[in-house]
Amino acid sequence: MSVLTNIKRKMFSEQATPYVLLLPAIIMILIVVLFPLLFSLYTSFTPYKLTRPDTLWKFVGLRNYERIFTDWDFWVAFGRTVLFLAIVINLEFLFGLGIALLINRITWGQRTLRTIMMFPMMFSPILVGFQFKFIFNDNIGLMNNALQSLGITDQAIPWLVDGTLAMGAIAFAEIWMSTSIFAILLLAGLFAMPKDPLEAAQVDGCNAWQTFRHITLPYLMPFAYIAMTIRSLDVARAYDVVDTMTGGGPAGRTELLWTLIARTGYDSASMGKANAMAYVSILLSIAFTYFFYTKLVAARRYMGGAQ
Amino acid sequence: MSSQTKTTLNWIGTFIVMLIITMPGIWVILSGFRPLQEILAKPAIWIPQRLTLDNFRAIFGIGETQIAIPVVAYFRNSIIIATTSTLVAIVVGISGGYAFARYRFRFKNTLFLGLMLSRTVPGIALSLPLFILWARLGWIDTQFGLILVYVALNVPFTIWLIDGFFRQIPKELAEAAEVDGCTRWQAFWRIEFPLAKSGIASAGIFAFLTSWNEYALASNLTRSTNSKTLPVGLTDFIAQFTTDWAGMCAMAFIIIVPALVLTFIVQKHLIAGLTFGGVKG
User: Fold this and answer.
1) Is A104 in contact with B3 (CB distance < 8 Å)?
2) pLDDT score, position A10
3) Which of A101, A149, B25, B181 lies 20 to 30 Å from A18, alpha-carbon distance?
């Protein structure tokens, strides 16, 4: 038997087949994700600047990390990012729950409403950013035009020029973009919910709030955590939104971790430092995903115990 | 409160929510068809006086008013890059998804987790090393460079979806075919693939949309008409001295139309895909 057929037989033997089938996927991830990430880990230990290529081979240990951890701007951006995500995701959950409950009560046209609800999901983050840059424009934006036409104010409110207002406008854009995920999942949860426990609660004399708090809500939580897990996978999409709406300005007042990375890496060309920050952002993303995933598992176990 | 008032309040609430959801997008799309003077007018003109295709003519360079932004080239790049990366991601996804759905093997869970974890890496964080490496390989500002990135970006999600679709098909079907003398490949190609086809198509649409909409990586790995995609091109307008809002809205319309149509086609799968994990437990 020739070597070739031997290899061929090995490749198509039952044990090897799954690995062969997965090989293209593994190779792609190796080239585009894993190897670059190892390279950027190395780069984060060098003072690499794009303008001076030879600095790539100088090893400085943890100096970049020391520098960013003592950098006030970094901590402000980091804190702002975590706070922003915490607020935005909680509000998305609350609004999504509200919308799901509203639509659940409606008996006519539910399907159409659900389709409309998916409208924001069709918009790419970059479009959402552009759209709200347009709407919150102080001069010609829909927001100020509406306020002025209604006679509420005759000022041009500087939505994207004032730091606090700009952060609010960005949060509005984020919430507009992602509330649908929560609404759709929670609505699916409401549809799938068995009616018996609700009836039993009514028989036992629970009022509407008690029924909601102790039966509906626990049943919906796994759905909410799925939404949060999905959402935590793409929190970094906020980069696209902020980059178009304010570019991190005014004077760094809307700078999130991701825009700071881009500014450090591309505008200041300090790739070493930017890669160190990038690693912090990767850990943040993994932490968010892991946090919601464990919540999801716990909620499911709780549900399993209740049934 | 009577149930009549409750229902009315419920409808009012729903109406307001739907208005907030649809209004911003409709306003942008509408503005794409309005002359710039009307958009800039003070006090605001609420009811459009005149609808026009001039903005579209301008960005495609067929009107009297020419603009400096090569939207046609960006459009072509977007189509080529999104289509190619989708096709490759689908083939790789079918192969990988089938492996996860039908085989037991060592490191299965580790591999699956690893694939999914690769999705959590923020685009901007990944763009830094890719920028350095692609520059050395000469892949910066090439369609190939971006296609490669998008395939890897899409593979985990397509594998996850396609794995789910294959799981829904009973194993016994293919086994019966094998008993009847089909090879494993024939059993897959004649029995399992046709059954999973619509699911695979929807996975393809998701992949296409991801590539079509991606910005963080594209904005840093492309530079010129060689490979710049539409989302990156949209920010060309911002860099200009005066913002051409009408042109931007027209371009936004061009980006949103394929996304709108495709999402509409897969909405059933989208909802099923989203809720899959929840119902199955």
Assistant:
1) no
2) 56
3) B181
Residues B207-221: pLDDT tens digits?
998 899 999 999 999
Which among A121, A160, A36, A137 has a CA at the least distance from the CA of B149? Answer: A36
Q: Tell me the residue length of chain B.
A: 281
- Rounded to two decimals, the pTM is 0.87
A170-196 confidence digits (pLDDT tens): 999 999 999 998 998 899 889 888 888
Domain extents in chain B: 3-59, 71-280
- In one letter, which amino acid is A71? D
Rg of chain A, C-alpha, whole Å = 25
Task: Give B-chain residues touching A142 at CB under 8 angstroms.
Answer: 23-24, 27
Q: For residues A281 and A80, is the Cβ–Cβ distance under 8 A?
A: no
Indicate the domain borders of chain A: 1-33, 70-306
**pLDDT tens per residue, range B184-203:** 888 899 889 988 888 888 88
Say how many CB pairs under 8 Å bridge A and B. 266
- List pLDDT tens digits, range B10-60: 899 999 999 999 999 999 999 999 888 888 877 777 888 888 888 888 887
Kindly provide the ipTM of the predicted complex, given to two decimals: 0.86
Spatial separation of the C-alpha atoms in residues A166 and A247, rounded to whole Å: 11
Q: Work out the angle at residue B257's Cα, subtended by the Cα atoms of residues B251 and B261, and round it to the nearest 5 degrees.
A: 170
Give the class (CATH, top level) of B71-280: mainly alpha
Yes or no: say if A93 and A228 are a contact pair by the CB < 8 Å rule: yes
Structure confidence at residue A39 (pLDDT): 94
Cα–Cα distance measured from residue A107 to residue B18, given in angstroms and rounded to the nearest whole number:
16
pLDDT of residue A4: 60
Residue B241 has pLDDT above 70, yes or no: no
For every residue of A190-208, DSSP letters joined together read: HHH--SHHHHHHHHTT--H
How far is Cα B202 from Cα B271, in angstroms, rounded to an integer?
11
A78 and A257 Cβ atoms separated by less than 8 Å? yes
Min Cα–Cα distance to chain A from B65, Å: 22
Within 242-301 of A, beta carbons closer than 8 Å to B belong to 243-244, 258, 261-262, 265-266, 271, 274-275, 278-279, 281-282, 285-286, 289, 300
What pLDDT score was predicted for residue A7? Answer: 60
Distance of alpha carbon B57 from alpha carbon B13, whole angstroms: 40
Q: Is A43 on the interface with B (CB under 8 A)?
A: yes
pLDDT digits (tens, 9 = 90+) for B90-142: 999 999 999 999 888 888 888 988 888 888 899 999 999 999 999 999 999 99
Cβ–Cβ gap A17/B216 under 8 Å: no
Question: Is A304 close to B123, i.e. CB distance below 8 A?
Answer: no
| Residue of A41, A124, A237, A260 to mutate for B, most B C-beta atoms under 10 A | A124
Q: Which chain B residues are Cβ-neighbours of A176 within 8 angstroms?
A: 20-21, 24
Q: Which of B24, B270, B271 is nearest residue A131 as measured by Cβ atoms?
A: B24
List Cα–Cα distances, B174 to A15, A18, B161, B177, B184, in angstroms: 18, 16, 20, 5, 8
Which homologous superfamily does the CATH classification assign to the domain defined by A70-306?
Answer: MetI-like (1.10.3720.10)
Tokens standing for residue A241: 């939104």
